[in-house]
Task: structure prediction
Amino acid sequence: MAPPLPEETALPAAAVEGPAGTASAPEPAGPLDLNRATVAQLDGLPGIGPVLAGRIVEQRAKQGAFRSIDELLAVRGIGPRLFERLRPLVTCVRAERTAAPESLQFAR
Result:
């Protein structure tokens, strides 16, 4: 067994490895809200990497808030099988899609 690290080089508790050599990460308290999740949070979902997480956030920015988790199927790279894996892990807090403010709308 290796000697303990000096106190100033000790790793923070979040970086300590768990069973089977995997880093332990805090478990989410409940389903992840698609309308508030960051790329980093989405990247933590099974089957979602940084690229796909970025696409989800881009879709949200383009279309406005997700009204239903079913809208994930419109994101390139999310098919029916991955969607079924994600279904219990995500939620969609109802948010109305907002139109552009009047100052940004074209004059008629």
Remarks:
- The longest strand covers residues 32-33.
